[in-house]
Request: fold
Amino acid sequence: MNAYPQVLFKNRRPGETVLLPEYEKNGGYQGLRAALQMTPAEVCELVKDSGLRGRGGAGFPTGIKWSFFPAEQPGDKYLVCNGDEMEPGTYKDRQLLLADPHQLVEGMAIAAYALQAGVGYIFLRYAYEDCSQRVERAIEEALAAGFLGENILGSGFDVELHVHRSAGRYILGEETSLLNGLEGRRPNPRSKPPFPAQRGLFGRPTNVNNVETLATVPHILVNGSLWFHSLALNPESAGTKLFGLSGHLNRTECFELPLGITLREVVEDFGAGVRGGKKFKACLPGGASTPYLTAEHMDLMLDFNPLEEVKSRLGTAGVTVFDENTCMVAVTRNLNQFFARESCGWCTPCRDGLATISWLLDRIECGQGTDQDLAMLKDQVRNIRGRSFCALAEGAMGPVEALLRLFEHEIVDHIKQGGCPFKR
Amino acid sequence: MKVLLPEEQIDSFKARAAAIAHPHELIVDLLRAIQSHHGWVPDDGVLLTAETLGVLPIEVEEVATFYDKIFRRAVGRRVIHVCDSICCWSTGAEMIIAHLQQSLGIGLGETTADDAFTLLPTCCLGACGDAPAMMIGLTTHGRLTPEKIDETLQRERAAIAAEFAK
Reply:
C-alpha cells in the first residue's frame, strides 16, 4: 500500500524484530564501515550536507549541531540518545526500535566516531521495556561482532553503549533534564548556557540526538547526501519521516513517508479517511505541543518550513486527527491538563500558569465561563510565552494559542450558551 | 517483614557502584530493582539505596519523589496505568476509565480491598495507534473495549491467585 521508498522501515515485519544476521544481509553496518574509512570531520560534513534535521521535535539540523561539538577536546565526552518519547500522539521511535533496533546501534557507533565520544547512553522511557530489551540484545550482538567495544573493525576507535531505563515524567525529554536523570540527580532542567556540547553529562561535552535521527545516519553514510535529498517530495527538504497516525482516523498506524507529503494524502490515503464518514475538523500535526491545522491546510506539505509558515510545527510528525463533532475547547483542556500535570514545578509561569489555564478551560467547558475568563486566558498565554525556564510551557502554549487563533468562536459559543455546544 | 532486595542483588549494586566514578547514576536502577522485588519503595528502601550506593538519603528521596513510576506508597500486586492523554481521550478513554473503576470497585488512585489492583491515571503510553490503552506492570494493552478489559482482569486475577498459592 505504501509505494514510497522505505528506509527506516525497509526490514519491518509486524510483530517481529530484525536480528543481526538479517540486518547485515540487508546492508547493515555498511554505513559504519564507510564512516571508519573517513575522518570524523568528513562524517560531520556529510551529515551536514544531507540536510538531516532532528526528528525529536525541534528540527535542528543534525550536522550543524555536531559541528558545534568539541570533538578534538581531550577527556571524557558523551553521546546520548533521547528515547523518552512522551509527547502525546508520538509513538514512532517505539515502532522503529521494535522492528529494527540495530539501526540505532549503528547510528550511535557512527555518531560516536564523528564526535569522538567514546561512551553512549540510550535513555528509554519506563513504558518502553519492550524496546529496552530489544536494544540490549542488539548491543550484545554488535559487541560480539566487533561493531562495538574496543578497536571497532580494527579502526583503533573504542565505543561502549549503555541502556538507561527511566521511571516516568515527560520533562525528561528536555535534554538537560534528561542529563540530570542519567546522572541520578533530581531531573529539573538546567539553565542554558552552558549548552550540553560544552558542559553536559557529568560536566563533560555531550551531544543529545533523538532515536530516529541517529537511526537515519547509517543510511546517509551508505547512500550519500544527494540520495537523502531526493527522498523528500519537498525539493527544499531532505529524507523520509516516520508519521504516527492517531485519533479519529480509520487506520491509525505508523508509516514511513517522504517529507513534503500533503496532509490530504496522509489523512485520506494512509489514514483511510475520518472514522464514520465524518468530516475532518482539525489535527495536531506533530504531537501535543504543535498548533492545530484545519481543513484549509489539507493541501499543505507536512514538513518543517511549510508548517512554520502557517504558525504550526512538524514536531514529531505524530498526526492526531479530530472529526467535525469534536469540541476544540475540550481537546485543548485535555492537552493542557497533560502539560500542567507533567510540569516539573521548577518555575512559576509553568507551575502556576498551566494550572490557571486548566482552571479557565474547565470553567469554559463546563459552562461557567465568562468574557473575563476569555480575556484572562489570552493574558495567561501572553505572559507565559517567553518567560518559562525551559521549553515545556512554551510547547504547552501551542494548542492554547491555536485555540484562540482558530477556534475563538467555539469559546464564545460555550460562554454564550452556558455549556458545551457539542454535548447536545 | 518482606525482603526489600535479595542480598546477592545488593552486593551486585555495591560492586557496580564501587567500579564507577558517579554512583548516583545507579539510584533509579536500584529504586526500580527494589520496587520490582518488593512492589513499592518504603522509607527503608530509600535508606537501603543510599547505604548501598554510598550517597545521602536525601539525594535518593529527591529522585524517588520526582518520578511518577516510583511508588513511595504501598500499591496492589498489579498497578494499572490507564492513559488519559489526547489520543486515548479522543477514542473513548473516559468510558474505559469508568469501566475499570466499576469493574474494580475503586476510584483513580485507589487500591482494591484484596490488594490485587491499584488504578492510576497516566499520561501518554506511546501506544497512540492502538488507543485507548493501559499498562499493567510493564505490559501495554491497546485497542481496549469493556470486553477486552474484563478478560484481561480475569487473567490477571488468576495469575495473582497462582502467585499466592506458591
User: Anything to note?
Assistant: Chain B touches chain A at residues 21-29, 31-32, 59, 62-63, 66-70, 84-87, 89-91, 122-131, 135, 138, 140 (CB under 8 Å).
